[in-house]
């Protein structure tokens, strides 16, 4: 078999590309997109402007084959303090001018599910977690400080969460008299079970890194001064892997949650037939036959 060329940026030389935004910072290092939420006066609160920039850059990330893994973090000392509350008072005033609604019982909620939402201007902040969840590429949240409310939801939407000693997560919605509107009622039970989910959502209590790892909310906890280094080591390792296989593995994990064992196996068989045709599979087989060790030099195709 002829010589196998490595992907651009994977040959030991870090290639860094930066793009300018107002509320996020981005750079690409060895196939890893590092996206940093950046609004220090609000501790990186997620508002419509930041959401718009994140949607735009995530679309670019998904469509660029040279960018293979997302690392999401925030400008220290915070990951994301939650939703930007500047518009909360205005929305309260607008709703108080409306007819007083009836109490929303569970039965009334069944009726509300079928009603069309009023049109909203600008990006829907609470849908940023869904955009991250739906990425067809691996993602890692690097929780370097408080992740509150929708900030916690952003971390939950990533495939993997690593937390520093200063990192902590909280479902703070209850302290604003709100429900978790970022999808965490769907995410959390799958990660930590119903009882732990409701404990966090009823109380809004903070959970530190070691406790988060203990209950399955996070995968790793690092000292603060080793957090980004440890996260990037993991991200680069994943970025150097078989891109198509990673993408389909993520798809199978998501889809299999709602399938029977037999249905999941049938879907996996179809996916396996697809990846057997990839260049990366051919490279891996030859690598094994040549009795090489370690990670094969995958090319991402």
Give a quick rundown of the structure.
The chain has helices spanning 48-63, 88-96, 106-113, 128-133, 150-157, 184-203, 209-215, 227-239, 243-256, 261-275, 279-289, and strands at 16-19, 24-29, 32-37, 69-74, 139-143, 146-148, 160-164, 168-170, 207-208, 220-222. With 301 residues, the chain is an alpha/beta fold. The chain has a seven-stranded mixed beta sheet with strand order 1-2-3-4-5-7-10, sandwiched between helices. A three-stranded mixed beta sheet has the order 6-8-9.
How does the overall form come out from the CA principal axes? globular
Q: What is the percent of helical residues?
A: 40-55%
| Mean of pLDDT | 87
SSE arrangement, N to C: EEEHEHHHEEHEEHEHEHHHH
Q: Compute the gyration radius: what is it?
A: 21 Å
The CATH class of the largest domain turns out to be: Alpha Beta
Annotation field: number of helices: 11
Q: Which structural class do the helices and strands define?
A: alpha/beta
Please describe the biggest sheet, giving its number of strands, its sense, and whether it closes into a barrel. 7 strands, mixed
The overall strand count is: 10
CATH topology of the largest domain: 2-enoyl-CoA Hydratase, Chain A, domain 1
CATH superfamily of the largest domain: 2-enoyl-CoA Hydratase, Chain A, domain 1
Beta-strand percentage range: 5-15%
Low-confidence stretches: 1-15
| Spatial strand order of the main sheet | 1-2-3-4-5-7-10
């Amino acid at each position: 078999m002829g010589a196998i060329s490595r992907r651009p940026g994977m040959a030991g030389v870090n290639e860094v590309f930066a793009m300018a935004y107002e509320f996020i910072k981005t750079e690409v290092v060895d196939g890893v997109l590092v996206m940093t939420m950046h609004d220090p006066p609000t501790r990186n609160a997620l508002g419509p402007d930041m959401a718009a920039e994140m949607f735009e850059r995530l679309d670019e990330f998904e469509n660029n084959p040279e960018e293979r893994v997302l690392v999401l973090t925030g400008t220290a000392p915070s990951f994301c303090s939650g939703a930007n509350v500047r518009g909360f008072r205005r929305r309260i005033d607008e709703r108080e001018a409306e007819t007083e609604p009836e109490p929303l019982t569970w039965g009334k909620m069944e009726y509300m599910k079928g009603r069309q939402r009023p049109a909203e201007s600008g990006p829907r902040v609470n849908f940023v977690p869904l955009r991250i969840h739906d990425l067809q590429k691996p993602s890692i949240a690097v929780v370097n400080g408080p992740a509150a409310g929708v900030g916690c939801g952003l971390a939950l939407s990533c495939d993997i969460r690593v937390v520093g000693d200063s990192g902590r997560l909280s479902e703070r919605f209850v302290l604003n008299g709100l429900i978790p509107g970022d999808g965490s009622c769907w995410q959390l039970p799958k990660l930590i079970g119903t009882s732990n989910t409701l404990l966090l959502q009823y109380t809004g209590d903070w959970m530190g890194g070691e406790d988060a790892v203990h209950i399955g909310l996070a995968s790793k906890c690092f000292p603060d001064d080793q957090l980004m280094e440890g996260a990037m080591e993991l991200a680069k390792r994943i970025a150097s892997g078989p891109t198509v296989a990673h993408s389909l593995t993520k798809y199978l994990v998501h889809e299999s949650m709602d399938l029977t064992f037999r249905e999941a196996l049938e879907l996996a068989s179809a996916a396996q037939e697809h990846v057997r045709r990839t260049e990366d599979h051919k490279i891996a087989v030859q690598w094994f036959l040549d009795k090489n060790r370690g990670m094969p030099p995958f090319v991402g195709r």
